[in-house]
Structure formats: structure tokens, C-alpha cells
Amino acid sequence: MNFSPMKHLLIGLWLTVPAWLAAQNLDQNILTIQADIQQIENQQKMLESRLENLKLQRVQRDLRDIGLPSQNYILHTAMALEYAEAHEQAKWVAHIITPDVIDGKVFRSNDFRPDPKVTTGSAVEEDYFLKFLQADSSYKYDGYGYDRGHLAPSADFRWSQKALSESYFYSNMSPQRPKFNRESWADLETSLRGYVFDHPKVQLYVVTGPILSDQLPKVDRSLNKLSLPEKYFKVALDLKNKRAIGFVMPNKANPDPLSTFAVTVNEVEELTGLDFFNALPDDLEEGIEGGMDVKSWLPEMAKGDVDPIYAPSLARDHFNTVQAKRYQGTGQEINVCGTVVSTRYSRSGNLWLNVDKQFPNQIFSVFIRKKDLPNFSYKADQVLANTAACFLGKVEDFNGTPTMNVGREESIKTEVPTK
Predict the structure, then answer these.
(1) Which residue has the higher pLDDT, 108 or 243?
(2) What pTM value is reported for the model?
(3) CA dihedral in degrees (111, 112, 115, 116; nearest 10)?
């Protein structure tokens, strides 16, 4: 069949147009889907924001419903506090560690600032340190020797940017000694978050504060003369499992394990004059606040750890595992008493005993060299396991742990002498 040149042109155009249209449709479809995805993402962000706001409202409701320690409080997005103007810090701060903390992705904001809701004016930066702008636009800091210690820790709010940011109000700060703030206090905060990680359907009601009195010294260089607390308290309530616990810790370096600072909520109430969780029915409140099961709160104890022996109860010249550190490297032979909570043989055949606390939280260890094991008439790993005993020897430092080498059976007594 013969076609004229015009027909050839028309047929060519007809064959190429669908390809062009297909390419145009492909690009348009991609743009359309991308726009749809962006719209969905925007909707998701909007819904997540609404959900966060609802959860924050629930936190406020639950804080009020559980019973705050006084009626004279300031309510922020996710915490409530009573400000003690005479001491320029909170008398108490209440907040909730919710299961949302497990998947929270918000981190430290460090936006320290005065609390706009404290009508008398909260503490300020100059209460903790001075800073001077340098020629290179950096700052030179002149500190007073104390950390801005959080009462309600910022990490407990890492599921909400707004709540976390508000935890940096100076009304939530208290002057804490660096060793205390960064070590034992931080360990306590981490432990309570760990409780929620271990109980993901539980929310913890927490109230924290300094123990204030008119006799407290002041931070001399602070602008508003902050009171310097000697001790801090923290109480926590797991309403779902009907258990509560309190802690009272001195504002200093604390080598003792957390369990040694555990007390009942009633004891904290007697010490502070505050009434925690007062909206609970009286019989429930008394039952929860009067008891304390430390092992339920501190997982390491549930795994077999025990409290060090109460030092004042030991006979003269006998020390507990916490006190052993004081004699580390002195060359002095002492008696250290505690409970053997774990035993193991090293590759070289030496026997290791961890006393009171297991690895990796060990606070005192004893080892018997392989060559000395024949000096014992019994299998030490079996006989001493889960047994309270006293060990006589010199305390040395082994990778940061106070450690004693015992070479003969006579250096171990399985009767702990008391006063």
C-alpha cells in the first residue's frame, strides 16, 4: 500500500504522541504521589502534636488526682511545684514518668531560664555562676562550685519537647555538689526510669525536693543567696502494683549503693512535713506508704544482691564492704564482712568471690589463688556461696574495685561478730 508524504507524517505523529504523553503522565504521577505523601506526613505531625497535648493534659489531671503535697503550687505542662522564696528553689516538684519515656527521642535542651510563673521571681543564672564574653565570642565561666541540679530530671520528659524544655526552669534547679549530682543522684534517676522500662504499662508518680530549713547555709556568691541543702528526698509511687518507696540522700559524694538510702514514704513525710499522694483512700495510702520492698524497685537486688551489713552493728575493728574502700592501698590488715553473692573461677584457676554486690556492680571482691586452694579443707566456692562471712587481709585496688587476697582458711570466718 502506498502512502503520500503527508500521510507518513501523520502516522509518525500518531505513533510518537502516546510515548510523550506516557512520559508526561509518569512525571505527573510521581509528583502527585509525593504531594500525597507530604500531605499524609503533615497530617501525621498534626495528629502527633494533638496526641502529645492530650497526654500532657492527662499528666496534669493525674498529678492533681493523686494528691499534691500542698495547694499552693505552680502547674507547668508536665510538672507541678511549690516554690520556696526564702530558699530560691522549689520545696517540692511533682512529675510522672510515663511509659512514653521508653520510645522518647527528645534530648537535653540546656535552655536554662527563669520560671515566668514564679511571681516573686525565681533563681537565675547568676545564682550558680558568672560568665564573661571574650574577644573571640566565646565565654569564660566563673563557677561557684555547685551544679544546677535538676529536681525533676529532664530525661524523664524525653517524649515531649515542651515538657523537657520546661524542666530547665530555674525553679526546678537546686545547688548540688558535682559528685552527688553526676553520680549517686543520677544513678537514682536512672534507676527509676529503669523501673518503667521493666514495667512498660506502669507510670510512676514522683515527688522530689531538697530538705529545707532556716539553718541551711547560703551559696555566698549567688545573686539571690540560694540555700545549700544538706539532703534531698525522692518518693515514687507505682499505683498499678500498689507499691511506693522513698529515698533520702546527702548532698555529697555517696559511695554506698542506692539501697542504703531507701526509706518508706512515711519516713520522708515525717522528715519533710509533706503529705504525699494524699488523694488516695486513707487505708490504701497508709498501706502503700508504710511499707517498702526494696528488691521490687532496685533490679540488681532482685538478682541476688544484698545490702551491706549495717556498719554500726559490727564488732570493733570489723568493717562492711562500703567501708573497705577507705583502707584500699594502706597496707593495713582489716576484717571486711559481707555476704558472698556470687563465685567464679578465672581461666587461670583462681577463685573469685563477690561480696554483697554481683558483677558488674561489685563493691568488694575476694580472690583465692589457685596455688592456695589446697590450704582450705572445704570447697570454698560451694561452702561460702550465699553465706555471710568476714575476711581478714589487705585491701588493694583491682580495676577500680577494692579487692582482698586471702590465702588460708583461718582468714575467713563464717560468723559475723556484732556488738
Answers:
(1) 243
(2) 0.72
(3) -40
